[in-house]
Automatic annotation (TrEMBL), chain A:
Name the UniProt record assigns to this protein: ABC transporter permease
Keyword annotations of the record: Cell membrane, Membrane, Transmembrane, Transmembrane helix, Transport
Membrane topology of the entry: Multi-pass membrane protein
Xref: Gene3D superfamilies: MetI-like (1.10.3720.10)
GO BP of this protein: transmembrane transport
From TrEMBL, chain B:
The keyword Transmembrane is annotated on this UniProt entry: yes
Gene3D superfamilies per the UniProt record, alphabetical: MetI-like (1.10.3720.10)
Keywords for this protein: Cell membrane, Membrane, Transmembrane, Transmembrane helix, Transport
Chain ranges passing through the membrane: 23-48, 86-108, 114-136, 219-241, 275-295
Topology in membrane: Multi-pass membrane protein
GO biological processes: transmembrane transport
Pfam family, one: BPD_transp_1
Primary location class: membrane
Protein name as annotated: ABC transporter permease
Domain ABC transmembrane type-1: 83-294
GO CC terms: plasma membrane
Length: 296, 304
């Protein structure tokens, strides 16, 4: 196979297959064209379906409503400019951020260490440890929440921010391990060996070589942890006592009507997250294109 | 799944390994201890709680250690409809989510493969719901499907819907909500396997005069089985334990309560901890049995 073809295959998975594709007979081609239109239309409809409640939440953040944000009362920007005027929204949001940040830092540190150990070292308890990491992901949240709450109850621990952070760290660890492990595995051990050969201490090799190379995986794991923590309600509900997080605020308010300010907070977080993700993707695509050009 | 994918990496690091097994211990210990303390011990204390008995003459919510097996028999008899409903709804939602997600994942993972940027932007739209509160999304559907909402009003105007009919509060609404909320969990793993699917196998099927359906059934589906297995698990497990969609304040009503609702109200409202704990243990046991059987049948045992 020529170098061109292999490079093409590397650039696009399945690229060769398309290259070598035989001309399709006329009858079959027509069939493909009809199906070729059906799938994009279906995808568009499915994505619109996924986005409907988001659009609804966003639109109703501009609703000039009183306490109950149900019927459309007219357009206003007041809720966006005075988010904190609704009682409890901003406090709950601040709690969610605090819990999310602390739980993310803890879970990312603990989980990254486990991921490195799992990929790089051989030890006997490996199977048991994998099971221990898999089980929290296979346990329904209501069981995780009730279990921790039962433990806090029997130990006489007062529920509050601390217990929420403990709970969130617990369920984030497994997700961090899964995410970072993939990155550790793709890391070339020769790079670290080179560092050791050049008389780098173990600590220096870790901080100057391993850690920077793992950083994208660690960052992805941290973002995932934060997202999981920020949106968690079921486990939080069992372990929060009198403290409100943002989702818990919504749950309690749901019984008597959600203030539009909650829609503002949720919409703002949504827009921020989407912008971050899209910018990251566009930059990565641009970088990939540049690398491809340089290799040519 | 993931283990086998990078079997070659640890082999290279082998020589350094035995010398420094204490490093592995230092790396593992904090996280493992954390999970033992805040995952395993809570499960054990849940088991203990499930056998507790009320303190005679004590306050509500006061229990003492015991071996009250009746907690199980009584709560299962009392809540059997809720347990069955939870698993029924979860199975329905999982099947619906699979049917809806598969073409979506196929399009993003296979059809637009040659446009990486389009691919990743479409994927962002799939996970976009994750960026807005799960509870607000569910409430948005509640408003949209409420009696004054556009859907019910339109259906009534067309006289295809009884005048005293509701959508919210029905099993339909709960299964709808569960399906909606877990579609991204289904689509992502499906996408991950379909993205790596070698299309030459599909072309070979077509070249050998298999009908598109046969090719799909005999080639595409078996090759994407790992994604189907992890997608269905990621949907089924949280759906079976969910109590938001079925709650009366969201899409459900008293007639749609699932076992999760019973656990929540017994634990947090009536402080009937032993019943809540017994139901949790039952829920977890049934899920583990179903998942175990399913994974064995589907043939992908290494899921971690």
């Amino acid at each position: 196979m020529s170098g061109v073809a292999s490079r093409l295959a590397a650039a696009t998975p399945g690229g060769i297959a398309r290259e070598l594709e035989a001309p399709v007979p006329g009858r079959r081609r027509r069939g493909i064209r009809i199906r070729g239109l059906g799938l994009p239309i279906y995808t568009a409809l499915a994505l619109i379906f996924l986005l409907i409640p988001i659009a609804y939440t966003f639109v109703f953040s501009f609703n000039d409503s009183g306490k109950l944000n149900i019927a459309w009362q007219g357009f206003t920007l007041d809720k966006w400019t005075n988010v904190c005027s609704a009682q409890g929204v901003c406090e709950a949001f601040a709690n969610s951020i605090l819990v999310g940040v602390v739980a993310t830092v803890l879970a990312t540190a603990l989980g990254t260490a486990i991921a490195i150990a799992l990929v790089r070292y051989r030890f006997r308890a490996r199977g048991a440890i994998s099971l221990l990491l898999f089980l929290p992901m296979a346990t329904p949240e209501v069981v995780l929440g009730a279990g921790l709450a039962a433990q806090f109850l029997s130990l006489g621990v007062n529920k509050g921010l601390m217990t929420i952070i403990i709970a969130h760290t617990m369920f984030c660890i497994s997700f961090v391990v899964v995410t970072v492990k993939a990155r550790v595995a793709s890391l070339d051990p020769a790079l670290e060996e080179a560092g050791r050969d050049l008389y780098g201490s173990a600590v220096a090799v870790f901080w100057r070589i391993t850690f920077p190379l793992l950083l994208p995986g660690i960052a992805a794991a941290a973002l995932l942890s934060f997202a999981l923590s920020f949106d968690d309600f079921i486990i939080t509900n069992f372990n929060s006592g009198a403290v409100d997080t943002f989702p818990k605020f919504i749950y309690i308010a749901a019984a008597r009507g959600i203030p539009a300010e909650a829609n503002v907070v949720a919409s703002a977080v949504f827009i921020l997250a989407i912008v971050l993700v899209v910018v990251a993707q566009v930059t990565r695509a641009a970088r990939a294109r540049r690398t491809a050009r340089l290799q040519r | 799944m993931a283990f086998s994918a990078f079997a070659s990496a640890p082999a290279a690091a082998e020589p350094a390994v035995r010398r420094r097994s204490w490093v592995a211990l230092v790396l593992l210990l904090p996280g493992i201890l954390y999970l033992l303390l805040f995952f395993i011990t809570p499960l054990v204390s849940l088991v203990f709680t499930s056998f507790q008995q009320p303190v005679i003459g004590g306050d509500i919510g006061q229990y003492s250690a015991g071996f009250k097996w009746e907690n199980y028999t009584e709560s299962v008899t009392q809540y059997l409809p809720l347990i069955l409903r939870a698993f029924g709804y979860a199975v329905l939602a999982t099947v619906l989510a699979l049917v809806i997600s598969y073409p979506l994942a196929y399009f993003i993972g296979v059809k637009v493969r040659s446009f990486p940027l389009v691919q990743s932007l479409l994927l962002t739209l799939v996970i976009a719901p994750f960026f807005i509160s799960f509870l607000l999304r569910t409430l948005a559907w509640k408003q949209i499907m409420s009696d004054e909402g556009p859907i019910v009003v339109a259906l009534k105007a067309l006289s295809v819907f009884p005048n005293d009919g509701h959508i919210t509060g029905t099993p339909f609404a709960v299964v709808f909500g569960l399906t909606y909320n877990f579609i991204p969990f289904m689509t992502l793993p499906l996408y991950a396997t379909l993205e790596r699917l070698d299309v030459r196998y599909i072309e070979a099927g077509n070249d050998l005069y298999a009908s598109p359906f046969t090719t799909f059934r005999k080639i595409t589906v078996p090759l994407s089985l790992p994604g189907i297995v992890s997608g269905t698990l990621l949907t089924f497990i949280p759906a079976a334990g969910d109590y938001i969609n079925a709650s009366g304040d969201f899409l459900g009503s008293a007639q749609t309560s699932m076992v999760g609702n019973a656990i929540e109200s017994n634990f947090l409202v009536t402080q009937n901890y032993p019943v809540a704990a017994a139901l949790s243990i039952v829920l977890m046991a049934v899920i583990l049995v179903i998942v175990g059987l399913y994974v064995r049948r589907a043939g992908t045992e290494d899921l971690v």
